[in-house]
Design goal:
Elements: E1 4-7, H1 18-24, H2 36-56, H3 63-77, H4 84-94, H5 103-112, E2 116-121, H6 125-135, E3 143-146, H7 157-167, E4 174-178, H8 181-190, E5 193-197, E6 213-215, H9 221-226
Length: about 230
């Protein structure tokens, strides 16, 4: 029986490509329009890689620093490092990333079904608060849990422990939802029921845990708790 639905934030509820895409559409950014997709991909890859490397080397910093470091690498890789105005604009928009279209309706349906709802994210508390507020999701979440409480990034098990400590439920009663395949696998190995939101149609990661469900978006999740 599922009682608690927990979501990763970036890429799952919030579109991590939105900042670069929106900047590319702004007047005067025609040159950047040729770079935004590649830059966004590099930025996200480095953001994740730096979180893993800092976890295994015990060199923790908050996710905002990692976000800035990842962007700086991506800008240099795209030959755009000298454009400080572009950097500032991209970072500003990262605090108000657009939510995917189905997010509000899915969270509303879960709340109406009596589910606990929460975010569990590598994001810093300030970043997450900004994104949640910008998307108007405050009333649809019981809590927003950040790894800053334990000082290590996912997929460390201490992070998933936070859900059990907060809601006092059995692992098997938690449905964990992530667009990151490695995150969904790690949550499954931890003991959660897990959903991989595979928006890009990628293969399942070869890791010890495997997601219980693979969907292309969040919409089917409501059926798991109401069926």
């Amino acid at each position: 029986m599922i009682t608690t639905c927990v979501f990763d934030a970036y890429g799952t509820l919030f579109d991590v490509t939105a900042a670069a895409r929106e900047v590319a559409a702004e007047p005067g950014r025609e040159e950047f329009a040729h770079h935004w997709s590649s830059l966004s991909e590099k930025w996200r890859q480095k953001q994740l890689q730096y979180s893993w490397l800092r976890a295994v080397t015990a060199e923790h910093t908050d996710f905002w620093q990692i976000t800035k470091d990842g962007l700086d690498w991506a800008l240099e890789a795209e030959g755009l490092a000298a454009d400080t105005d572009l950097r500032d604009r991209l970072l500003a928009l990262y605090w108000q990333l657009s939510a995917f279209p189905e997010v509000a309706s899915v969270l509303t349906a879960l709340r109406e079904a009596g589910q606990n709802t929460a975010i569990l994210s590598n994001g810093s508390p300030e970043m997450l608060a900004g994104a949640v507020q910008s998307a108007g999701l405050e009333e649809l979440l019981d809590d927003v849990l950040s790894v800053e409480s334990v000082g290590i990034f996912k997929p460390a098990p201490q992070v998933y422990d936070m859900v059990i400590q907060r809601f006092g439920c059995a692992k098997s009663h938690v449905l964990f939802v992530s667009s990151n395949g490695w995150d969904a696998c790690a949550a499954a190995a931890y003991g959660f029921q897990s959903v991989w939101v595979n928006r890009r149609g990628e293969p399942v990661d070869r890791l010890p845990g495997q997601p219980d469900h693979v969907f292309s978006d969040l919409i089917a999740i409501t059926g798991l708790v109401t069926s």
